[in-house]
Specification:
Layout: H1 28-39, E1 48-52, E2 67-70, H2 76-87, E3 92-98, H3 99-105, H4 107-116, E4 120-126, H5 156-159, H6 165-170, E5 175-182, H7 186-206, E6 209-215, H8 219-222, H9 226-237, E7 244-248, E8 252-253
Helix pairs in contact: 1-7
Length: about 260
C-alpha cells in the first residue's frame, strides 16, 4: 500500500528565520508564531503594520516579516492609532505590548482608543511581571507573587488588588471583540491562533477595535525551569484571569 503524506503544518510565511533571543520557555516565542500564522490567513498583498512596546515585546520586529514600529514606553497605542488613521481602512494595524507597558504608562491611551472604537487590533502579552527590566511588579502581578521589587509577596494592604483589565475593556461599548487565552497550554494555543486571526478580520471587515490578552510565563524571573513555571502560573491564574472569548461583534458580551 502506498502511503500518502499531507503537510498539515509548516514554517509561517510571516515569521522571520532570524533566531529568536527570548529566554528558553518564554511564551513571547509562541505568541510571535501565532501572530505570524494569523497574518498568513490574509492574502500576500494585504497591508499589515505592527507596533511594539518596550521590554521583551520590543524584540518582535526582529522576528516578524511585516513592517513594524517600536514605540516609546506607554506610547504604543497612540502610535498605532496614528498609523491606523494614516492607512485609513486600506490596511490593518496591530499593537503587541507587554502588560507592564500597556496597563501601566499606556493605560489612559488604551482606554480612550477603546472608548472611541479605533480600528485596531491590540494584543497584550501578560506575563504578570516586568520581564526585561528585571522581573519587578507589574499591574497584573498576583497577590502573594514574589517579584524583584516585592520580595514580601505583594500583600494587598501595600500594593492593592490586581485588576482584570481584559474584563474591564469588555464592558466598553465601542469595543468589538475581546478574548484571552493561555499561551502555555496546547488546547488554548490552538484556540488563541483563531482569536488573533478573528481579531484582525473584525478590524478588516468591520473597522472595529479588538483586544486579545495572552497570558504568558516568564521562567527567568520566576527562577523556575519552564515546565515548573507553566504549572505554577496555570494554578496561580485559575479563577483570577479566566480564558475565553468574552465579546464578539455578533453577540456582544458573552460571559
Ligand atoms: S525575561 Fe521573561 S519575558 Fe523576557 S524573554 Fe526572558 S522569560 Fe521572556
Amino acid at each position: 500500500m502506498e502511503l500518502k503524506f499531507e503537510q498539515i503544518a509548516g514554517f509561517p510565511k510571516s515569521l522571520s528565520e532570524t533566531p529568536q533571543h527570548f529566554c528558553p520557555g518564554c511564551t513571547h516565542g509562541v505568541n510571535t508564531r501565532l501572530l505570524a500564522e494569523a497574518i498568513d490567513t490574509f492574502p500576500a498583498g494585504e497591508k499589515i503594520v505592527g507596533v511594539c512596546g518596550m521590554g521583551c515585546s520590543g524584540l518582535l520586529p526582529d522576528y516578524l516579516d511585516v513592517k513594524m514600529v517600536a514605540a516609546p514606553p506607554g506610547q504604543a497605542i497612540p502610535v498605532a492609532v496614528g498609523l491606523s488613521h494614516e492607512i485609513g481602512g486600506k490596511g490593518l494595524v496591530f499593537a503587541y505590548v507587554g502588560e507592564g507597558d500597556l496597563y501601566g504608562r499606556g493605560l489612559s491611551a488604551l482606554l480612550h482608543a477603546a472608548k472611541r472604537g479605533e480600528s485596531l487590533t491590540v494584543i497584550c502579552a501578560n506575563n504578570l511581571n516586568m520581564g526585561m527590566s528585571g522581573g519587578h511588579l507589574s499591574p497584573t502581578t498576583l497577590l502573594g507573587q514574589e517579584t524583584a521589587t516585592t520580595p514580601d509577596g505583594t500583600p494587598a494592604t501595600k500594593y492593592g488588588v490586581p485588576i482584570d483589565f481584559t474584563r474591564f475593556i469588555t464592558g466598553i461599548p465601542a469595543v468589538s471583540l475581546v478574548a484571552r487565552f493561555k499561551g502555555f497550554t496546547a488546547g488554548e494555543i490552538k484556540k488563541g491562533r483563531g482569536y488573533i486571526a478573528r481579531a484582525l478580520k473584525v478590524q478588516k471587515y468591520l473597522g472595529g477595535f479588538s483586544f486579545i490578552e495572552i497570558l504568558g510565563i516568564c521562567p527567568t524571573n520566576l527562577e523556575l525551569p519552564p515546565a515548573e513555571a507553566v504549572m505554577r502560573t496555570k494554578t496561580a491564574v485559575a479563577g483570577i484571569y479566566p480564558s475565553g472569548i468574552f465579546k464578539t461583534p455578533e453577540a456582544g458580551i458573552l460571559t
